[in-house]
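Structure ticket #2291
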Amino acid sequence: MKMKLPKDYPYIYETHLHTSQGSACGVDTGRGMAKACKAAGYAGIIVTDHNWGGNTAVDKGLPWKEWVNGFVKGYEDAKRAGDEIGLDVFFGYEAGYQGTEFLIYGVDKDFMLAHEELRTASVEEQYFLIHGAGGMVIHAHPFREEYYIPEIRLFPECVDGVEGINATHSNSRSKAHNEKIFDERAIDYARQYNFPMTAGSDIHRTDLLGGGMAFRRRLSSMDDFVRAVLEGEDYLLTNGEKWFTKEGEEIQPDSVLD
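Resolution: structure written out below.
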């Protein structure tokens, strides 16, 4: 696929992406994902593999240091490829709590190595740990209904924002979780608490959906992304087919770049 981007928002970032090295549900390697995203027109990606509380591909019984070193291989593979082909590749992860999941942005491998307590942290403890490091916690697909999610649980006091658009819910080419009402409920939830919203594809293979967040400028780092979201910078959300304001209102961009 090749995306058509709004003329005024030419820098699009995939914010929810899995690799086969870090996520047991991932199909393609970090390198493969990076190359596919570059070819599709992404300016950058955030690798968000499943941690020990989710569908991780790394043996949970390993000592902490070994587990972390194994966990980041998908990101590191994607980063090497990104450096070669001109794609920004940033690190994040998806933290799982019995089916409830959070996208963690703004921390890195060194932070994880220094904080083994992450492994046993509650949702509340995770929030304070990530915040203490200047990071951001986003509730991923908060209203998704699936066999691995026993119940819908909301933690408005322990998140900084909400994944309002998840392309697997509303993109017509999605082969999983395809119920647009999941996004509609997430957008309503974000508005209720005045949370910033993110968008991503939750992609696991190189058959891309084209979801993500489009900015007027190129982002310089993961910290830059966190600041842009938390400080209310102008950006658009997309599920790969439709465009939305950062408040979740569907729009038709005035013009697009081929």
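Closing remark: The chain has one domain: 5-252.
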